[in-house]
Amino acid sequence: MQQNDEEDRVYSELRKSVGRFIFDQGVASVFRDMIGRSVPGYGTTIRMVSVLASQYVQPVSRCYDLGCSLGAASLAMQQGIGVPGCTIIGVDDSFEMLKQARRHLPAAGDSTPVELVCADLRDIKIQDASMVVLNFTLQFILPEQRLELLQRIHRGLRPAGILVLSEKIGFPDLEHEALQIEMHHAFKRANGYDALEISQKRQALEQVLIPETLVQHRQRLESAGFSRSDLWFQCFNFISLIARK
After folding, report:
1. Cα 73 from Cα 171, distance rounded (Å)
2. In the chain, N or C: fewer CB atoms in 10 Å?
3. For residue range 25-34, what is the model confidence (pLDDT) as tens digits?
4. Does the pTM of the predicted model rise above 0.90?
């Protein structure tokens, strides 16, 4: 995968009004740098998607990367899949993100093919799937729409199929919440963001990203029909779960 090393300076200049965060051309062009410097453990979650694909993807099945952005999880699944006859479907509603993804994803060759679809993931039918990835995606869906999406994913999974759910989370204890946020901001400062960039991006994201607690996520997964969900990763207020059908 060709690397996109353009530096994220999206929120480096003072704005009179900070609008909603959107995945436009400006964000798409720097997204690899942005997410690597903003989400602690992001590289680990992507590498483990490859490991999980090697263990759980079933022959002649479909794999879905919902909210695929630049296709990092799709590529990780492609690298991990060791069984024949599979297809990876990457879905994102941002044309600009998919344009970048198409530029960087290699031709399949003898590997599992990746199909990129520009659509609202809530409109995608999940079928005959052995692995589905929601990598920091559910948090952008309205809370009242999240259960229905997880139910559709559950229905579309084969027996023993898995969902990988990575999210930014909140905490019911306000002191703990404040501590986690401060540690996350310290992580960003260590990666070169200044106070203005952190503040303005936070304002933009607060209008579209609605985090929930780990308990809320696990309860919803159970309500959607998953037999169990296991926390396998956490760094500050970012976590990843494996949910099994």
Report:
1. 27
2. N
3. 999 999 999 9
4. yes
Nearest to 81 by CA among 43, 113, 126, 106: 113
Candidates 80, 116, 123, 115; CA nearest to 98 is 116
pLDDT in tens, 186-232: 999 999 999 999 999 999 999 999 999 999 999 999 999 999 999 99
Element (H, E) at 27: helix 25-38
CB atoms within 10 A of CB 86: 22
**Torsional sign, CA 71, 75, 81, 83:** positive
CA–CA separation, 197 and 181 (whole Å): 15
Give kind and range of the element (H or E) at residue 36: helix 25-38
Find out whether 101 and 116 touch, Cβ atoms under 8 Å: yes
DSSP letters spanning 102-147: HHHSPP-TTSPPEEEEES-GGGPPP-SEEEEEEES-GGGS-HHHHH
**Which domains occur in the chain, in start order?**
42-170+209-244 (3.40.50.150)
Distance CA 32, CA 38 (A): 10
Confidence at residue 108, expressed as pLDDT on a 0 to 100 scale = 55
